Amino acid sequence: MKISRRNMARGGLAALSGLLSGFAALAVAELVSAAVRAGSGPVAAVGGAAIDRTPAPVKDWAIRNFGESDKLVLQLGILAALAVLALALGVVALHHRRTGSAGVLIFGAVGAAAAVSRPDATGLADGLPSLAGAVAGAGVLCVLTGRLTARRRADAPSSVDSGWDRRGFLIAASAAAVASGGAGVLGRTLNGSRGRDAIASRAGVVLPPPASPAAPVPSGAQLRIPGVSSLTTPNKTFYRVDTALVVPKVDATGWRLRVHGKGVEHPTTVTFQGLLDRELIERDITLTCVSNGVGGPYVGNARWIGVRLADLLREAGVRPPSRGGPADQLVARSVDGMTLGTPVEDVMDGRDAMLAVGMNGEPLPFAHGFPVRMIVPGLYGYVSACKWIEDIELTTFDDYDPYWVKREWARRAPVKTQSRIDTPKPFARPEAGTVMVAGVAWAQHRGIDKVEIRVDDGPWRPADLAAQDTVDTWRQWSFPWQATPGGHTLTVRATDRTGEVQTGKRTRTVPDGASGRHSVVVTVG
């Protein structure tokens, strides 16, 4: 059957109607979320639900391939999928308006269900943005496709083409676009204003001088070799790996931390000012994400200031298992619903586990946990580095599985001894002669004792170690390689201060961190 140009045009406008209805749904949802909670919008809710239900290997693949842009890629993917669905529903509604509108309502219900099922949901109200947006979207779709199916009246002006109301469609579509744009902008503005108090509270924080300042960085700890990672990672380039599609902005003046659970003789609630009034410590500590592949970028070193976590627990009457305490797991909860489980013994064994309030001389950035985050040297972040923390519960590993443990990751995860070649980069083409090979090695809470380099299948040769800052920080190293023309493979391995040599056996990041040795291939000219 031959399709007329008029019908093709109506089909295209029907698809546009679907797209405008989707735009209206998202805009109204954004506006309503300003009255509920910023993270209750459908894109954030569906995206969060998708993250929660994504298998660990897939999630790890996304981090490996998209890095810190993985959330942006997810959000763009959701928007693209919604756009395709909206286009399809528009075409369906041209012939079956009720069916098309019902489709919009169904997807609104899906968004509402995702919102109320999120760990940080505050109740059924979290579903309101998606439902309100769906009703608005269905209404827009019904009106616009109605204009495309309106019959010409005998007294209709010439602007009304045979079979549909062209002028009426253009007016309705323009009105829908303008109204939706206005609703979206207003919603964004209102949601942004809700974070202004948090921004103001951070701006007003003055970190007290620590009672126990960090020791001066030893001379020679920072190598002057181009391409090697800085000993201290700037805040703006410090890695960020978490599940938060919307970075929480918490007002420090209203922040509270509750400590409770098994073996807590004196349950307590602490305020942010209460933490600042306590004795603060300052330490250089390297953090590592368990999703960091061999030679990967998800490791960084910063100077942290905070309160000893062990002191706070002791004041609450907590004893570690080695001293008869009934709890062996500390579960930290974030404002976004994330839960992390940490061995109580590790928190209270004398290492500098802390509730950090500052990073590199300033209050924590929002992306790194303001107002307070937890840090435990020697453990991967997913079992120790809870950002935006608001609750600490003492329990046991048998009684509770935190977020990542439910998703195939190990309950206990000490950082593995690792090293990385920073320079030369893979596939570099250095000139023959002396080529400086350099990088970093880490084994937090144990320290690095030795780093070795191997060229092709030759013997392992000792690298020169920079001065050690602390056992909790990474350590720089260098090796002057007498490079000869041709292709070569450079491999590095480290030995920590317990005598453990970095293994050459490659394993993936799941369940407790990647292992193996980092190599780069270069061609010497």
Give an overview in words.
This protein is α+β, with helices and mostly antiparallel strands and 525 residues long. Helices cover 34% and strands 21% of the residues. The chain is built from eleven helices and 18 strands. The strands form four sheets. It has a five-stranded mixed beta sheet with strand order 2-1-10-5-6. Strand 7 and strand 8 form a beta hairpin. Helix 1 packs across helix 4 (70-95), helix 2 (42-53) crosses helix 5 and helix 4 (70-95) packs antiparallel against helix 5 (97-117). The longest helix has 32 residues, at 5-36.
Outline of the structure:
The protein is α+β, with helices and mostly antiparallel strands.
